[in-house]
Every structure is written in C-alpha cells, then in structure tokens.
Design a protein that fits this description.
By secondary structure, the chain is an alpha/beta fold. It contains 13 helices and 13 strands. It folds into 3 domains: 107 residues, no CATH class; 152 residues, Alpha-Beta Complex (2-enoyl-CoA Hydratase, Chain A, domain 1); 49 residues, no CATH class. InterPro entries: ClpP/crotonase-like_dom_sf, Tail-specific_protease.
Length: 392
C-alpha cells in the first residue's frame, strides 16, 4: 500500500499499514485480506463514494474482526467465505472473491489443504439442456408466460430459438407474463431478442463512466484473452474502453460515449406485439436482470409486479485482480452508472409498479403466477383461498 501521513490516513488504512508489518507473509489468507482495502480504494468504481456512507470506524472494526478470523483459517474454502463476508461491508453486490484459475490444483498440492468451495467460484457453463434455459408455457388462449431464469450469455441462442419456434403462439396471445423472479443476471445482450416485442416506443438509455487506473487498464487488456478467447465483440468493446481510459489521467473518469443520455432505437419493433405485459420480479433479480427491468418498464404496455429487486447495478463491469497469494481473484467494479445520484438502484433495488406479498415457497410462487394471469384477463390480483397467501 502506498505510504501516507498518519494524520491523513483514514482509520482503516492506518490499520492496514500496521498489519503489513505485524502479520506473517506466509499466511496467504491474511495477505489477501490486507491487500483488498487499499486496492479497492484506488481501483473500485464505488469504494471511494461508499466509504463515507459506511463510516470509517465501522469499516475499521470490520477489518479488525476479519483479521482476527483470518489468523485461524485452515483451508481455502474457509478463506473464501471470510473474504466474501468482509466484502459485504463494502457493497452487497458486484464485489466478490473467487478461486483463481488453477487454484484448485494448487490447493490439492498443498499439504493438508482442502479444495476451494465451488459455491464461491464463478459458475461453470451449463450444458445446452441446463435447467436455467428460457421456457414458454401457454396458460390460456389469451395468456402465456415466458420464464427467464438467467441472462447468462450462453442462453441468448436458446431464447432466440424459443421466440422463433413459438412465433405463432406469441402473435396470438395478447397477454404476456415474463417471469424473472429467480433470474441470476448475466449479460444485457442476452435479453435483446425480447426487446422488439416489448418496446414500441423509443427507449432512453443512460450510460456509464469508467475509472481509469493502471490496474483497471491492465484488467481490460487481459479480460477477453482470459475469459472470452476468440470473441471479437469482446475485443472490440475492450479496445473502446481502453482508448477512453488512456485518454484521461489516472484516477479520472472516462466515457466511451460523450452523451449521458442516449435517445436512439437499437431494435426494430415487431408489428404485432402483446397488448399487456406483466413482468414478475423479486429480490433475486440482480445485475443484468435489473437492467432488463429498467429497460422494459419504458414500454407503455409493461407493468412490473412483485418485490424490489436485489440492488446490484450502480457499479458494474466486473474485472478480476489476482490477490497476493495467487490463489484467489478479487472481482471488483470498473464503471459507475450515470444514473447516479438521481436514480440509484443499489440502495433499494428497482421498485415494482405493484407491490405483491412475500412468497413462502413454491406454492406461493405458483399462486402468484395464477393471480397475475387472472389480473391480465380482467380479474383480481388477490390470491385465491387455499393457493398460498404469503405474508400480508
């Protein structure tokens, strides 16, 4: 960590400096923990803004607690859990630690070491028949439901195929339910095939700005070769961001697009679209799922129903930084939305147009879907007796 005057350093930073001398360099988990605060303050798009909100004393206490627990860590699985728990003090979403590629092999080679937790590593690609593929179900001659459990890029082709094969059903049903209640996010491009059906009006989009630092430039240089080899679109996008970052001083914010607001249509609307669209949402909808909500709610025939979303969209475009141990990557945000400060999402999530009761289980989820179907067809949103009532 760069040196700073004791009087000028925040409390947590002084603690990190002291720890760098006090802790043994051989403790890999402790080394990784100590590296994170200073790195985030310099490179994460949200850290400098969020620290005053969290409070320096609170953050210092969180670091001290994590440091004492790190001294007792016995394996990589426990270390991942500890580091991710500590990062929740910074931001609840779009900030995590995962095993580095090849870390499992390193862990297996270490005497007495346990393998890293699969739950904290980036998700492995699903097979084409994976359970999180998009599905379409015909409920009545007037209503259908499209279930979108994920916006992972690997599911875009499946959505395109689904819409093409079911075109006759899509054209004949005036009422659509789009269910994203358990959507785990992914990439904005994955839901693009749906937009011509939902947006007849010209949408308004708000851009992002990128924090320029040497580490962030290196991350953008490496991201495509590391995680999307051979992807020409990834390379083109990364190059445009890099050009913007290199054009401003370190620590400054850069924009790929000069305008904050963009008024342009990126898709040609379908000539025959659904008359009424209900988007079912919940607290599991985060990241690209939330961007989907912000986009489609601009359609005049679209309503959002359910509960507030997760709240992980203000700071995004995640990039990995290999921590000192070499066994773990810190994934952090390199951009912030130009919606801020007028329209934050992380604090409260995207709010539904119509708030619905909390769900208590699968029966409640099915009853909620049935109620929304009745509502679209002219009935009540109230769940019928015996179909699950949820919390009042």
């Amino acid at each position: 960590m760069a040196a700073c005057l004791a009087a000028a350093c925040p409390a947590w930073a002084q603690g990190v400096q002291a720890a760098e001398h006090a802790l043994g360099a051989g403790d890999a988990c402790a080394k990784d923990l100590e590296a994170m605060p200073a790195f985030l303050m310099e490179n994460d798009a949200g850290a400098r803004e969020l620290l005053p909100q969290r409070g320096e004393q609170s953050m210092a206490a969180a670091l001290l607690k994590a440091r004492s627990e790190a001294a007792q860590i016995a394996d990589d699985k426990a270390c991942l859990a500890l580091l991710n728990s500590y990062l929740k003090h910074w931001r609840k979403g779009h900030l995590w630690v995962s095993s580095s590629p090849g870390a499992e092999a390193q862990a297996a080679a270490a005497p007495g070491a346990a393998p890293a937790s699969a739950a904290t590593a980036p998700p492995a690609p699903e097979p084409a028949s994976g359970a999180r593929q998009p599905t379409l179900r015909l409920l009545t001659p007037r209503t259908l439901v499209i279930h979108l459990p994920s916006f992972s890029p690997q599911h875009r082709a499946a959505l395109e195929t689904l819409l093409r094969k079911q075109r006759a059903a899509l054209l004949s049903r005036p009422n659509w339910i789009i269910d994203v209640r358990d959507n785990d996010g992914g990439a904005d491009s994955s839901y693009a095939p749906l937009l011509p059906w939902l947006l007849a009006e010209q949408p308004v989009s708000v851009g992002v700005e990128w924090l320029s630092t040497p580490a962030n430039q290196r991350a953008h240089e490496q991201i495509c070769a590391r995680y999307a080899p051979g992807d020409a679109a990834c390379v083109l996008f990364a190059q445009s961001v890099l050009a913007a970052l290199r054009a401003v001083p370190s620590g400054a914010w850069a924009r790929v697009q000069a305008d904050r607001f963009v008024y342009e249509r990126s898709v040609v609307p379908e000539k025959r679209r659904p008359q009424k669209v209900a988007v079912l949402m919940d607290r599991d909808c985060g990241s690209s799922c939330e961007q989907f909500l912000l986009t489609v709610r601009q359609g005049l025939g679209v309503k959002l129903l359910g509960r507030p979303s997760f709240g992980a969209l203000d700071y995004s475009n995640m990039r990995p930084f290999t921590l000192p141990s070499g066994r773990r990557d810190l994934w952090y945000a390199t951009s912030r939305s130009l919606r801020l400060p007028q329209l934050p999402v992380d604090a409260f999530g995207v709010l539904p147009d119509i708030l619905l009761p909390e769900l208590q289980g699968p029966a409640d989820a099915a009853a909620e879907l049935q109620a929304v179907q009745r509502w679209l067809e002219g009935g009540s949103l109230q769940r019928l007796p015996g179909t699950g009532g949820g919390k009042p």
